[in-house]
Specification:
single chain; 746 residues; alpha+beta; nine-stranded antiparallel β-sheet; two-stranded antiparallel ribbon
Length: 746
């Protein structure tokens, strides 16, 4: 329940004057970066003033870069005012009730090319103001206030408002901007007591707790007795160095080395991922503590280029450089964060300049913007307004994929007055039509996303390609779900044994569609997988009625299930976590617990669509469709154009025999989300049942044109055509269905 408005206003006024809470509460083993400088003075010097060092700072006259001299900024009809009172900084802006209030700036967040500001609330939340200071020089368009969502109209009712969950520092930002962080969310009291050992990204953020290392040093050191020198992880990529041999264009490692610890440690903050454990697991695989996002639509282009704000890990994991052993510190100084050399010199360490830094290779004039290696091989995108970030997949420009798939390419990023076809012709003219082309999985992922008729063959080719990056193979597996048939069983079973946890996790996620006995036979071993994220995925895949869990696997399931719940409750401040808990409870038959979890999700985020849809479905299972309808209509009042809610409402109305209303809702869902063949299929079936067969067939044909690989749509088309007496059409659809899955005609 929302508090009365007068109470809310009082709370906000208190927040404006509340002192910043003490946050120094280091977990066991943390000693602080100051303990490191005595022996590591040069590293400390390089770290000082770096983006890591300035990631977060208390707001002081020395750290605040924005204009707080009664500056004003108007956005969406709200004028915010920035002022200073002595050494304290304030903003007067719209709060969660839409009214203007004074808020004291507690911390600065970041330093270049923008600086955000954090405001503290009495419940321990720190919220990131969406009004940011552009720290670039004025000549570059900086030294001004701007809004992160300048092209939208975000108000206090929107999930992206600065007071909402999406801008909460404790969950969204804290673990990567401070050291030794513990979120400490009390789900019962619904408040945070977040602590850190150091406010910025200091030594122990990467090297782990330093107490044992300090003890090792005080005892006189000696690598022979302890090769790690008391550190949680050895971040050095030990082994061979890169050597540029005579006559070779690219350097090779002189001897094998293992740089996984470094990449996985950097990936804790430089990956698009969800944290699933709050432990010091540096040096272990990233999948032990984080669920890493695959090359999902909206986050990545079909060819794997970054699209959303995905940071660097997922891109680099696709690269040939990663495959041959390049690590972050080969290019970046780990302590300053800067490149080891400027411009093309950074690449010349491993790439012979007489081969690559030439007109013959670059096809651009020396010294021009197009002659920079990063211009072609690390295309950049702007995030947070003007934070320019480079794609780290180090791909060759593929304007031909832009022509075929609509993906961006480095050529027309610069030559904006030219077409992708023009760029593709130019590249073919330079290198010929037989040039080796990567990535090889672009067309497959595009086909899988669209459920194309030929998608199955393309996706399985990627899954079977041992040379493809594991993140691409895992993504291809995840896209196989609509195509699954008996043919894929051996392939999925092999993927369950893959050495890469991303591939195993994607494979186990396919198991719910299998026969229960076979599902448990092949999936149960994953409950004891050595990697936590895979174990959690196995719980999600195997959960069903408690009585249906085989006795031989009950103990393993309960142990992994407890771990699953702990991972969700780590993020108990998020509606998504309670959705996951509720879904698990529902599948285990714990209806009361599931309802409570879904209700908690909606309390945290009343506009959270999946929780409303799941709660309504839970009521369906209990014969409470009227209650489910109420939940859905309440959610639709907040999200009137949401297709998921319209679809769920339509089904609820059908079950209540209110078919005319149901058809309206199902039609709205199909129209609002035209790419969903499921919505089209259900709407078509409802039309058919209402005696409107020609309309049903038309809806299905349109869906089939969009997603030719959807077997459900094809089966319905075949059936409806046969019922209409159109045997030729029915036979044609049957042939198409057989081409997708030869077992379908048996």
């Amino acid at each position: 329940m929302r508090p009365p408005i007068i109470t809310l206003v009082l709370a906000l006024l208190v927040a404006a004057a509340a002192p910043t809470l003490a946050r120094q509460a280091p977990p066991p083993g943390y000693v602080g970066g100051a303990q490191c400088t005595g022996c590591h003075a040069e590293e400390a010097r390089r770290h000082a003033g770096s983006h890591h060092d300035l990631a977060m700072q208390p707001a002081t006259p020395q750290t605040v870069l924005g204009d707080f001299a009664d500056a004003r900024f108007t956005y969406n009809g709200i004028t915010s005012t920035f002022t200073r009172r002595g050494d304290d900084f304030f903003v007067r802006s719209d709060g969660p009730d839409g009214a203007l209030h004074d808020y004291r700036i507690a911390y600065t967040f970041g330093v270049e090319p923008l600086q955000q500001y954090l405001i503290e609330f009495p419940d321990g939340r720190l919220q990131a103001l969406s009004l940011c200071w552009d720290t670039r020089p004025k000549a570059q368009g900086g030294q001004r206030w701007y809004h992160l969502y300048a092209d939208e109209k975000i108000d206090f009712r929107d999930e992206l408002h600065w007071t909402g969950l999406a801008q909460n520092w404790n969950y969204m930002c804290a673990s990567c901007h401070s050291t030794g962080l513990r979120r400490n969310y009390d789900a019962a009291a619904r408040r945070f007591d977040t602590t850190w050992s150091e406010v910025d990204v200091s030594c122990e953020a990467c090297h782990g707790p330093g107490a044992a290392h300090l003890d090792w040093a005080r005892r006189g050191g000696g690598a022979a007795a302890d090769p790690r020198k008391g550190l949680t992880v050895d971040l050095a990529a030990r082994g061979g160095a890169w050597v540029l041999h005579d006559g070779e264009p690219i350097a090779r490692l002189a001897a094998p080395r293992d740089g996984r610890a470094q990449l996985e440690t950097c990936g804790r903050c430089h990956a698009r991922a969800t944290q699933i454990a709050e432990e010091d697991a540096r040096g272990q695989g990233l999948a032990q503590t984080h669920a890493v996002a695959l090359l999902e639509e909206g986050l990545y282009q079909p060819d794997g280029q970054m699209q959303g704000e995905v940071y660097e890990y997922g891109s680099f994991a696709q690269s040939r450089m990663h495959a041959v052993g390049v690590v972050c510190s080969d290019c970046h100084d780990a302590h300053s964060g800067r490149l080891r050399a400027d411009g093309n010199a950074a690449c010349a360490t491993c790439h012979r300049t007489t081969v690559y830094d030439t007109q013959a290779h670059m096809h651009h004039a020396a010294g021009s913007a197009g002659a920079q290696c990063v211009a072609c091989h690390m295309p950049a995108r702007d995030y947070m307004g003007h934070d320019r970030r480079h794609d780290h997949s180090f791909r060759v420009p593929r304007p031909d994929l832009s022509v075929a798939l609509g993906t961006p390419n480095a050529c027309t990023d610069c030559h904006r007055d030219q077409s992708a076809a023009w760029a593709a012709a130019a590249v073919q003219g330079w290198y010929g039509p037989t040039r080796r082309r990567r990535p090889s999985y672009a067309a497959a992922l595009a086909a899988g996303r669209g459920v194309a008729a030929d998608g199955r063959g393309q996706l399985t080719a990627v899954v079977d390609d041992a040379a493809a990056p594991p993140i691409a193979r895992a993504t291809a597996l995840s896209l196989l779900a609509p195509y699954l048939s008996a043919h894929e069983v051996p392939r999925v079973e092999q993927a369950l044994r893959d050495p890469d946890p991303l591939v195993r996790g994607a494979a186990v996620a396919l198991l719910p569609a299998w026969d229960p006995a076979r599902r448990w036979q092949v999936g149960a071993p994953l409950l004891a997988d050595p990697v936590r994220s895979v174990r959690l995925e196995a719980v999600n895949a195997l959960a069903e009625g408690a009585a249906a869990i085989p006795a031989a696997h009950r103990a393993a399931f309960e142990a992994a299930g407890a771990e699953y719940r702990a991972a969700q409750l780590l993020n108990a401040d998020r509606a998504e976590a309670w959705l996951n808990v509720g879904s698990l409870d529902a599948r285990l038959g714990q209806v009361g617990a599931a309802e409570a979890a879904y209700r908690r999700a909606l309390e945290l985020d009343p506009a959270f669509v999946p929780a409303a849809a799941n709660l309504a479905d839970l009521y369906r299972q209990s014969g409470r469709d009227a209650d489910g309808e109420t939940v859905l209509r309440q959610a639709l009042a907040r999200r009137p154009t949401d297709a998921t809610l319209q679809h769920a409402l339509g089904l609820a109305l059908i079950r209540q025999q209110r078919r005319a209303e149901a058809l309206d809702a199902l039609r709205a869902a199909a129209e609002q989300e035209p790419r969903s063949t499921r919505y089209a299929y259900v709407y078509a079936v409802a039309l058919h049942d209402a005696g409107r067969r020609p309309e049903a067939i038309a809806v299905l044909e349109q869906a089939h044109r969009r997603a030719g690989g959807d077997r459900e749509v094809l089966t319905a088309l075949m059936t409806f055509a046969a019922q209409a007496g159109n045997q030729a059409a029915a036979a044609d659809y049957a042939q198409r269905l057989a081409a997708l899955d030869p077992t379908a005609a048996q």
